[in-house]
């Protein structure tokens, strides 16, 4: 059913349309209609039975309706093209709408928590008729279907907002099952555990809401890109035969499908400006076509023909590798003028490395004096790059 619905909707979309935005809005509409239906049904049942759990569950469905509206608005705004005020587009608004959904989930959890505390203090019986039982079971089935639907669409368009909405639907399954458990236990034993069960579910909802808030805050602040995406970019750059090497890859994301990157590429210093410009243009164009990433290349010329510089390059890299294989040196330059010749280079240091920058510099300087000669080393330490 879900597969058929998704495929049918996908086929109905015109060519060259924004499929991601269309799917997000479609998922929002499906959620809006189904949540409205569940809210009305559960509210009536809660009033008839007098169950705080059922009425709280109905309010939760009402909040889900608001969540569906937020999802609709979020995908609509994130699908808007770039403009003067937002030159990188509006895709990050999807993170904002997801954040609002997460805040709503947490708010409902706290409200449910307070209501459950009151019911523990003043327990009341739950009246569950066969009709109520059937409606609650149907509610569980609808919410399970809804959660799976959101998950499938989220996976198809890579949307954390729909992942949050799917989790919200799953929370509803647990709250409704809690009502059934409370009613069953009360019917068999006479124990009124409605408030206690509601309290447990409220804690779960609050926990899941706070987790989602944390995820969206991280997205808005800027997370390290997915390792698979980084590896794919590294693999592509490694396959470019004309460049000597690359380093300082930086990636900036302005939404799920809006990624920018910059990288330093090392080229033979005998290239002229036109040749270097044409090569970097070609790399940037193919990078965009293959990976969908807007790349900007910075050129670092490397001396490949001077034997003394080649010796210093190789010996310095051997020294650094001997200290730790995870250390990476680049932009190695030799400055001969002045009172003492200098070796300048950048050193990429892993975040978990225990030695301080000063300790590393002293060790490198000592070995340069011993193995290369009377050169003063000047090191620029890089701690924030992906490579």
Describe the protein.
The two termini are 45 Å apart. Helix 4 packs parallel to helix 6. The chain has 3 domains: 2-221, Cation efflux protein transmembrane domain (Alpha-lytic protease prodomain-like, Up-down Bundle), CATH 1.20.1510.10; 224-301, 2-Layer Sandwich (Alpha-Beta Plaits), CATH 3.30.70.1350; 306-387, Alpha-Beta Plaits, CATH 3.30.70.1350. The strands form 2 sheets. The protein has a 3-stranded mixed beta sheet with strand order 1-2-3, with helices on one face. The protein has a 3-stranded mixed beta sheet with strand order 4-5-6, covered by helices on one side. It is built from 11 helices and 6 strands. 64% of the residues lie in helices and 13% in strands. The protein has helices at 2-12, 19-49, 52-78, 93-121, 130-157, 160-189, 194-221, 227-238, 273-291, 307-323, 357-371, and strands at 245-253, 259-268, 293-302, 328-335, 342-348, 376-382. Residues 29-221 form the Cation efflux protein transmembrane domain.
Note the main attributes of this structure.
Alpha-Beta Plaits; Alpha-lytic protease prodomain-like; 387 residues; Cation transporter; 3-stranded mixed β-sheet; 3 domains; alpha/beta
Give a short overview.
The chain has 387 residues and is α/β, with parallel strands linked by helices. The chain is 64% helix and 13% strand.
Count every helix, treating DSSP H or I runs of 4 or more residues as helices: 11
Strand order of the largest sheet: 1-2-3
What's the oligomerization state?
Answer: single chain
Low-confidence stretches: none
Q: CATH homologous superfamily of the largest domain, by name?
A: Cation efflux protein transmembrane domain
Any idea how many domains?
A: 3
Mean pLDDT: 83
The gross shape turns out to be elongated
Secondary-structure class: alpha/beta
The separation of the N and C termini measures 45 Å
Membrane topology: Multi-pass membrane protein
Pfam families: Cation_efflux (PF01545), ZT_dimer (PF16916)
Protein name: Cation transporter
Transmembrane segments: 21-45, 95-114, 126-145, 195-213
């Amino acid at each position: 059913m879900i597969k058929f619905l998704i495929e049918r909707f996908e086929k109905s979309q015109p060519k060259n349309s924004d499929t991601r935005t269309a799917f997000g809005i479609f998922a929002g509409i499906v959620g809006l209609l189904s949540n409205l239906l569940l809210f009305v049904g559960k509210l009536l049942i809660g009033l008839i039975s007098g169950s705080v759990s059922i009425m709280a569950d109905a309010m939760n469905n009402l909040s889900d309706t608001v969540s569906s509206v937020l999802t609709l608005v979020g995908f609509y705004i994130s699908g808007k093209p770039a403009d003067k005020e937002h030159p990188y587009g509006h895709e990050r608004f999807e993170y904002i709408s997801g954040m609002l959904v997460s805040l709503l989930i947490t708010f409902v959890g706290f409200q449910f928590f307070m209501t459950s505390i009151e019911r523990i203090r003043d327990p009341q019986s739950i009246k569950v008729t066969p009709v109520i039982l059937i409606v609650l079971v149907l509610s569980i089935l609808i919410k399970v279907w809804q959660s799976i639907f959101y998950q499938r669409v989220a996976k198809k368009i890579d949307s954390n907002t729909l992942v949050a909405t799917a989790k919200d639907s799953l929370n509803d399954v647990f709250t409704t099952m809690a009502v059934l458990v409370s009613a069953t236990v009360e019917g068999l034993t006479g124990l009124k555990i409605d408030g206690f069960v509601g309290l447990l579910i409220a804690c779960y909802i609050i926990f899941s809401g706070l987790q989602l808030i944390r995820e969206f805050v991280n997205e808005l602040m800027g997370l390290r890109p997915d390792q698979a995406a980084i590896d794919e970019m590294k693999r592509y750059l490694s396959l470019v035969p004309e460049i000597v090497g690359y380093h300082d890859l930086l990636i900036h994301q302005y939404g799920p499908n809006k990624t920018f990157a910059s990288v330093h590429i090392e080229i033979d210093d005998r290239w002229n400006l036109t040749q270097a410009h044409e090569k970097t243009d070609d790399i940037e164009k193919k990078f965009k076509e293959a990976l969908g990433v807007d790349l900007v290349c910075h050129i670092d010329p490397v001396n490949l023909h001077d034997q003394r510089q080649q010796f210093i390059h190789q010996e310095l890299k051997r020294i650094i590798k001997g200290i730790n294989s995870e250390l990476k040196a680049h932009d190695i330059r030799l400055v001969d003028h002045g009172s003492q010749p200098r070796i300048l280079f950048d050193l990429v240091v892993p975040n978990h490395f225990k030695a301080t920058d000063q300790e590393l510099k002293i060790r490198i300087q000592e070995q340069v004096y011993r193995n290369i000669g009377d050169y003063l080393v000047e090191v620029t330490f890089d701690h924030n790059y992906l490579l």
